[in-house]
Amino acid sequence: MLTDYHVHLRPDGPATPPQEYFTAANAEAYRAAATERGIAELGVSEHIYRFTESLRIWDNPLWREFALDDVDAYCAFVRDETDLRLGIEADFIPGREDRVETFLADRPWDYVVGSIHFVGDGALDHEDYDIWGPGTDPDKVWSTYFEWLGELARTGQYDILAHPDLVKHWGRRRPFPEGDLRRFYDLAMEGIAESGIAIEVSTAGLRKPVGELYPTKEFLAMCLEAGNPVALSSDAHTPEHLGFGYDEALAFLDELGVRELAVFEGRERRLEPIG
Ligand SMILES: [Zn+2]
Ligand SMILES: [Zn+2]
Q1: In 3D, which of 69, 89, 258 has the Cα closest to residue 157?
Q2: How high is the pLDDT of residue 14?
Q3: How far is the CA of 93 from the centre of ligand 2 (A)?
Q4: pLDDT tens per residue across span 131-149
Q5: Which residues of the chain have pLDDT under 70?
Q6: How many angstroms is it from 123 CA to the middle of ligand 1?
Q7: CA of 116 to the centre of ligand 1 (A)
Q8: pLDDT tens sequence across 83-138
Q9: Cis status, amide bond into 94, omega within 30 of 0
Q10: For the chain, which end, N or C, has fewer CB atoms within 10 Å of the first or last residue's CB respectively?
Q11: Contacts within 8 Å (CB) and 24+ apart, 49-55
Q12: Ligand 1 centroid to 19 CA: how many Å?
């Protein structure tokens, strides 16, 4: 079994109206690309901040720019017009856990992908809201990021921990901490271990400035040691990117002794052999 769960049906940017991308034909194009690449388990996980209701969770400039869609229309489309699993990529915003819970409740998700894209008001992977300015201390950003990652896991609101070390998105094009990065990973590990959350191995990092998988081998080894399972995804925003870089990801998992992947349905998880 191969999976691709962290998938978007359209490119990033607010000018991508759902009526153009949330169509049975587009879903079928994704399904066809997945089948061609041997990916049987396919789901979509639209960004939570695409939905007007998300502004009740966090009202910030980027979200306001994107929050145009109706979440129930999205759920109905995926359920009724596609054969894809229904997911959502929901940001962790400290202190807003109750509001996220209200948003997620009573909707028919197969899984919820948990992400951190913003540390405070600064974005980790978006130039317009970039957290990195003159004098930004990388040790401080990385410490906060990984502390929050542990908190995200501990909420129990998320099934999959997305692109776990997204903070490295820009690689050496932004300030980067020196030395052994495990001192940062350690800050997240207690929450990760206690929660049992599935750890995403994402090939998206291969397409980003950092040019490597999310997460590093050291990070994943610590999660495996803690007993957490792995979820495999590409974070594709087009059918072409489905399963992108999976040869590299599968070699990485093999090297770490990972033989099974997490599979989700109705927020229940089971493990299936890779292949
Ligand atoms: Zn993301
Ligand atoms: Zn994503």
Answers
A1: 89
A2: 87
A3: 16
A4: 999 899 999 999 999 999 9
A5: none
A6: 11
A7: 7
A8: 999 999 999 999 999 999 999 999 999 999 999 999 999 999 999 999 999 899 99
A9: no
A10: C
A11: 49/91, 50/74, 53/103, 54/103
A12: 22
Q: Provide the 8-state DSSP code for 243.
A: T
Token output for 252: 């990485």
Q: What is the pLDDT of residue 275?
A: 87
- CA distances from residue 82 to 37, 43, 146, 226 in whole angstroms, order as listed: 19, 10, 36, 36
3-state secondary structure of 123: strand
**Ligand 2 mean position to 176 CA, how many Å?**
23
Q: Tokens in use for 111?
A: 């899984």
Residue 269: strand, helix, or coil: strand
- Quote the pLDDT of residue 162: 98
Give, in order, the Cα–Cα distances in Å from 16 to each of 55, 91, 201, 209, 263: 19, 20, 27, 24, 29
